[in-house]
Amino acid sequence: MLETSKNIDTPPLSSQKLLNRRFCVAPMLDWSDRHCRAFWRQLSRHAVLYTEMITTGALIHGDHKRHLDYSDIEHPVALQLGGSDPEALAISVRMAEQWHYDEVNLNCGCPSDRVQNGFFGACLMARPTLVADCVKAMKDAGDIPITVKHRIGIDEQEGYGPLQEFVGTIAEAGTDAVIVHARKAWLQGLSPKENREIPPLNYDLVYQLKKDFPDLEIIINGGIQTLEDARSQLSYVDGIMMGRSAYQTPYLLAEVDEHFYQQAATGKTRRDIIHDFLPYIEAELSKGTRLNHMTRHILGLFNGQAGGKLFRRHISENAHRPGAGLEVLHDALAFVERSW
């Protein structure tokens, strides 16, 4: 049976030198929770998975176990932090290392008002020296890879110069990699959703970073819809990060190991993936987790397939009901199978 909570005696994956960021699945607030990541791990053994952003305040002053807990099957898994106080970030890194996360990522890309009011996220791109201080404090706090996720710029910043300065400053501080969303962020006037869609993509700026910082690992993010798109990026950068496309059409992750890690694909059908996920769901149900908290992440598994709409509809209408159990999934699969 799959483990559903991590074992803090398990050696950290980062110490085993197994972390490979050729393909990453993005941190997505309210989406990439631990149940979602456990599901994704049924599709790819090697893609690096990222948590939702967790603030340093929530970790240090809140229920840190609730925020940090995850299943051992999720490795390799990275913790994304929101914060701008070097001391608080250092404390959070020590906590992440105790929980054997494989990487800690600092969010310098989120443009939401709430994040700006807490003085973290994309607004930090205007303070490269402060971000460098944060990175150095995080590096000094433990032996775990530290990365930064950021945009190509914010607001009125124009051209390549500010981006080059930002990356150069944090690279000198010791960041192990940067993950660059190839869109500018507008801190006023656009919502977080609009900031993911309206500012134009500029991949060339990210490619130029790799030319100017050849020894720094650079991961590109933004607008990557298919595995073909993703593979084409590897001619210019070290890895790619995919977000909403992976969430909405998760079965594409079933080909990641073969195409990005030169490992044999699992060969799992969509039906196999559901059946392999059932032990995890059963174990979580026994702990009191509601079925819909897990099944909301699998709704896109049969996108574009015969019976896919019936699969989604049955789960959406029944998984939230009190006492809902595995029978909901078995019945949803039956709708698909009757459509074949």
From TrEMBL:
The keyword Oxidoreductase applies. It is an enzyme of class 1 (oxidoreductase). Its cofactor is FMN. The record marks N107, K193, R196, R312 as: Interacts with tRNA. It comes from the Bacteria. HAMAP family: DusA_subfam (MF_02041). NCBIfam families: PRK11815.1, yjbN. Belongs to the dus family. This is tRNA-dihydrouridine(20/20a) synthase. The lineage of its organism: Bacteria, Pseudomonadati, Pseudomonadota, Gammaproteobacteria, Cellvibrionales.
